[in-house]
Amino acid sequence: MTTLGSGLARGRRWLRGHPLAFDGALAAAVLACMVCASFTEPSTGHGPTFGVRAPAPGGVLLMVLAAAALVQRRHRPMGVLAATGVLAAAGLVLADPPAPVVISTVVALFTVAARTDRPTTWRVGLLTALVLTVAAMVAGSTPWYSQENVGVLAWTGLACAAGDAVRSRRAFVDAIRERAERAERTREEEARRRVAEERLRIARDLHDVVAHHIALVNVQAGVAAHVMDRRPDQAKEALAHVRAASRSALDELRSTVGLLRQSGDPAAPTEPAPGLAVLGDLVGTFRNAGLPVEVACADRDGPLPSAVDLTAYRVVQEALTNVRKHAGAGARAEVSVIRVGATAEVTVIDDGAGAVPAATVPGARRADGGGHGLVGMRERVAALGGTLTAGPRYGGGFRVHAILPLTSRADGAKAPHTADGTGGHG
User: Fold this and answer.
1) How many Å apart are CA 313 and CA 272, to the nearest integer?
2) What angle do CA 186, 188, 194 make, to 5 degrees?
3) Positive or negative, the Cα torsion across 24, 115, 167, 6?
């Protein structure tokens, strides 16, 4: 059975790849059926009788012409139907005995029904059936009410129904195939989009980790170098802070890079992502680096959603890192995290006075670090559907203010444009 099934499958593939050969074989089979039918005589007793009559030469010519026309049925279905219809009507009217050319018309009508729309199929089919049935009733050798004349009507109607069914099935299969291909493309696009978003998120985390800890390491290393000879105890304390900051940076880098591991790699760390729960530790690292930080108000109404919590922590971390890098000596910072309705507001302000770059808004007072800190913060906040503003404060200093919705966007709509303050931070 398997061998037979594979052989039939190969045969179908070959015929599908050689349609002209298939149509030629079909035309030969139709011609053989018409010739056989022309030798039969209908009988009311025990069915048709074979060999009682022979076809006339004119009838044979009509059958050959009708069969030859079927070879072009795929390329010119309407033309082939018209030609076979005319030949069938001529066979009913002129040939004696009538030639069964209607068989070729049935095949041509099936082809038209399988390759056109339903309204066209039934209009053309009704016209063909009407013409051939009237011709058989009026000019045929049998009485107008004979079953042969009714058979012409039945066969043409059957050809229309069968061709329409085949066309509908092909359309259904094509629709399913197109839907499956579209779903596959959608899955691939969604996978690429998720990969791109994950890469961007990892890049942001890496930037936040490196920018924060390396800035602290740089500051403490400078302090240690400055007091090494005169105050070794303070230098040791600064170097201890350098060691702690570098260890923390390595731990966070290990956690972030662990997301990039493949399935066969060692298991990634399971430490939770940082959040506002460890805001005190974050502020303590900056205080140890010589930046006075005041936590004016921290949210105490319960934990924020994980994505909002991580984003708020990163905004505070990046903003304080920029204060330490750009605000200048003697600057002080203030952090505020409050919940207002369905949003969480994160504010970081300072009173520093850095250099004024030429490209900043009048009133700005610090140089652009040339990094991606503000860009990363804006992208993080916009990914949650929030807004972020950053710019100089009136009277001096700098202010970073983020509004984060407590419910993430579910519709995937484009994030609103964040207010574009001066890019004074790196």
Assistant:
1) 13
2) 100
3) positive
Distance, in Å, from the CA atom of 113 to the CA atom of 119, rounded to the nearest integer, reads 10
Residues 117-134: pLDDT tens digits?
888 888 888 898 888 888
Q: Which residue has the tokens 């978003």?
A: 197
- Take residue 379 and report the two structure tokens written for it: 């992208």
CA–CA dist 124, 128 (Å, integer): 6
- Say if CB 63 and CB 34 are below 8 A apart: yes
Q: pTM for this one?
A: 0.44
Q: With contact defined as beta carbons under 8 Å apart, do 125 and 154 qualify?
A: no
Distance CA 271, CA 274 (A): 9
What lies within 8 Å, CB to CB, of 367 at 6+ separation is: 326, 354, 355, 356, 357, 424
Number of separate helices (H) and strands (E) present in the chain: 11, 7
Q: How many residues does the chain have?
A: 426
Could you check whether the bond before residue 98 is cis, i.e. omega within 30 degrees of 0?
Answer: no
Contact 361, 390 (CB under 8 A): no
Residue 291 vs residues 155, 241, 274: alpha-carbon distances, Å: 96, 14, 21
Supply the pLDDT for residue 409. 52
Question: d(Cα 148, Cα 140) in Å, to the nearest integer?
Answer: 10
d(CA 282, CA 290): 13
| Token code pair at residue 364 | 């700005």
CB 99 within 8 A of CB 62: yes
Instruction: Read off the pLDDT of residues 353-389 as tens digits, 9 standing for 90 and up.
Output: 754 443 333 334 444 444 467 777 888 888 888 999 9
Residue carrying structure tokens 């298991």: 267
Cβ-contact 334, 296 below 8 angstroms: yes
What tokens does 395 get? 């009277």
8: alpha, beta or left, given left = phi > 0 and alpha = psi -120 to 50?
alpha
Measure the CA angle with vertex 133, ends 128 and 137; round to 5°.
Answer: 155
* Tens of pLDDT, residues 184-214: 888 888 878 887 787 777 777 777 666 666 7
